[in-house]
Amino acid sequence: MNRRGRAVAAVLLAATATLGVVAAPAALAATGQGTAQQARAWLPQPTGPYPVGTTSLQLTDDHRDDPWKPGQARKLMISFWYPTTRPATGNDRAPYMLPAAADHFGSAGSVGQSDLGFEPGRTDWAGIRTHARADAPALPGGKRPVVLYSAGFGDPRTWGTGLVEDLASRGYVVVTVDHTYDASEVAFPDGDLATSVFPALMAQPGLDMEALLRKTLQTRVDDARFVLDQLAGLRHDKQLPPGLAASLDLDRIGMVGHSGGGSAALQTMHDDPRLKVGVNLDGQLHFPGPDGTGVHLTSVAEDGLTRPFLLMGTQNPDSGSYHKQPGWDALWQHSTGWHADVTLTGSRHGSYTDAQSLLPQLARQGAISQAQLTEDVGDVRPDRAVLATRSYVASFFDRWLRGHDDHLLDGPSPRFPEMVYER
Hints:
Layout: H1 3-13, E1 29-30, E2 37-38, E3 52-65, E4 73-83, E5 93-95, H2 99-105, H3 111-116, E6 129-134, E7 144-150, H4 161-169, E8 173-178, E9 185-187, E10 193-195, H5 198-202, H6 209-234, E11 248-258, H7 260-271, E12 277-281, E13 286-287, E14 296-297, H8 299-303, E15 309-313, H9 326-334, E16 339-344, H10 355-364, H11 370-377, H12 382-402, E17 419-422
Helix pairs in contact: 4-12, 6-7, 10-11
């Protein structure tokens, strides 16, 4: 979203090397005669014992009108990330973004470009590869816990791939959800590219921010619940790679999300008992009033939760400890289930996303300014931020979905002195 939209939406959503940042290569890909060279970047390797597979699927909710495009059924793209039998190499590695989505994400005025501030057209987004093998068979071994992932306000589902791949490499089946017309762009199998409605909406005079943000959050919750509805039927779907459907343990489901996706994760927990646990990565839980001021709590903040959740804040000016955020503070006071709060020192809002690993590489190649980089991800060491995010999210899900407790969440840890712990 544009800067005005990000600043206002922050009142609710905070705007929307192994285990390290791999150094960008010296060679850059040329975009053509007489044009600037494109920057290249790589995702950090997953750390779990399993190779990773991925597959994508379109879902259509014939019983729900699209809230952003009335008169048409709600369509979503989801991706599965899961343990597989052998690692991907070379061209077997699935692309980070499909070409049409990558071109739009990197173009001037896209939500991604406006929000992050990288130079339009200067990055080879289509050239980034994941560590997953496309449409690979699932690793045999019985049912595995399922985790839904929801990206930030205006972000595509790909923007959390580093975290998602890591969870899959540790034995989870992760389902990433694109929120159509919210995400910067969503590429569908028929060639349709659905772009975000937010730039146009944010430019409207007299915009009622409370109404827009309530609608956005509710749409995301409805999307997540629809995906949950579909997962049971997908266990018999022949479109999925061999063994994947049978590996879904629908009695052990959690959700993690960043920014607006973090807000949606806890709100979906509140609204749907199928979610056993949730992690909120820097997503606020209060709305502004219609004029963009004031504090109006979400229902999850008003009512609290009876099941475990983890809050992970940043040092963005509108984030931090639960004490500093009215929505988080209300949730804390009203909840009876296990809960903890950590804040990553030196971080900014993008530090829990792929921005933390990709943008420093782009900055070294001149595709984003150092000042913009600091605004997006702060001055925390990228490798430490990635390691901390993966470790705390995995520790939480291992504890509550698998019964494996590494005690990282018992209190402050000498392993992560940059994480400020509160419980």
